[in-house]
Amino acid sequence: MNRLSQLLWALLLFCSALQVQAAGSRIVTDMQGRAVEVPENVESVFTDRFASLIVFALDPDLLCNYTFPVGELAKQYISPAYMSGKVYSRNSDEEILKQKPDVIILGNMTGSDDPDELQERLKIPVLMINFRLNDYPRTFQFLGELLHREEKASPILQFLDDYIVSLNRKFSKIPEDKKPRVYYAEGMKGLNTEPSNSFHSQVIDYLGATNVADIQLGGMHGMTPVSMEQVMNWNPDVILVWSGMPAGMTMGGKKSTDSNTMTHIRTNPLWSGISAVNQSQLYQIPALPFGWFDRPPSSNCIAGVLWTARVLYPEQLDFDVDQALLEYFQLFYHVELSKQQLTHLLKGN
């Protein structure tokens, strides 16, 4: 083979390699508008703490890490596949490289890693997803297409449309004077809370209720302190009591912070003059396997939409909330609950 033939052959091999590389990858626009080159087939995903439960809902086998420990009391309410065979890691470069994921998925939230910097540093595609309640239909559609899991995304999208989106459509149009006035009680004495537009209180906004807490938005972890006088002035119709921090994640046999908060509000005479307390409109938010309201503010909040809708609008729902919750656990946690297990959860653990 002469020199020219060798060069032509080398060029042909190079072009063939480029074609194979092109055929084996594609350009995807993530939910932050970034164009990212990803493998044609994604079989392994590393997530940050906010995206973990969302990817798990779509396909447990894709995850190579888990980001929230599951306490003993919580294990019966989520498939073992969430932790089994996976490493506990949130944002370790060393661990990510060790796991060799095809892509990294981050939740679009203040405090998350900069996706471009992370991608450049690790040479692994990084994609951003949104995870507020209004975003979930688009998020699961995006992930289904990105990960070629459209069939797995389909029942989740149907569930969201049948129950969650329909609740938002129905109750977001309530006249201002008809909206339930809600206080979200956090902290050991109930004197921490979240304003409207917080990740931690988004369920209230989503269901068209009025969040009475007229305060500034706090940091990523929320829990803005308020005074008893402020709560008295707001005089909410309904009080929803937090499920601890981290919610439901350290409840393995220990007395939980949520029951302490509920007990304090019920027994402290300063709270007795508030409408929600003396009208028995004080409710403990369920906490297993993760908080149903927030902490983490991820797809676990979807169960909170169903639960809160029944608390706020018990006479206005046209579907069986218990049945919807059983479907939720099957789709998002990959576990089939008995009605007895669900009843236990609804008692506030």
Describe the structure.
With 349 residues, the chain is of the alpha/beta class. It folds into 2 domains: 24-149, Rossmann fold, CATH 3.40.50; 174-346, Rossmann fold (3-Layer(aba) Sandwich). It has helices at 3-23, 52-58, 93-99, 115-122, 136-146, 150-171, 202-206, 228-234, 257-267, 275-278, 301-312, 321-332, 339-346; strands spanning 25-29, 35-39, 45-47, 65-66, 87-88, 103-107, 126-129, 181-185, 192-193, 210-211, 224-225, 238-241, 282-284. Helix 4 (115-122) links the parallel strand 6 and strand 7 (126-129). The chain is globular and about 65 Å long. Mean pLDDT is 89; it is low at 4-22 and 248-259.
Descriptive terms for the model:
ABC_transptr_periplasmic_BD, Rossmann fold, 349 residues, alpha/beta, ABC_Transporter_SBP, 39% helix, signal, 13 strands, Iron complex transport system substrate-binding protein, globular, three-stranded parallel β-sheet, four-stranded parallel β-sheet
How widely separated are the two ends?
78 Å
Strand content: 5-15%
Overall number of strands? 13
Classified in CATH, the superfamily of the largest domain is: Nitrogenase molybdenum iron protein domain
Largest sheet: 4 strands, parallel
- If you average the pLDDT, what whole number results? 89
Rg computed from alpha carbons, rounded to a whole number of angstroms? 23 Å
- The SSE string, one letter per element, is HEEEHEEHEHEHHEEHEEHEHHEHHH
Count of discrete domains: 2
Q: What is the general shape?
A: globular
- Which fold name is given in CATH as the topology of the largest domain? Rossmann fold
CATH architecture of the largest domain: 3-Layer(aba) Sandwich
**For the record, what CATH class of the largest domain applies?**
Alpha Beta
Low-confidence stretches: 4-22, 248-259
**Total number of helical segments?**
13
The side-by-side strand order for the widest beta sheet comes to 10-8-12-13
State the helicity in percent bands: 25-40%
Structural class per helix/strand content?
Answer: alpha/beta
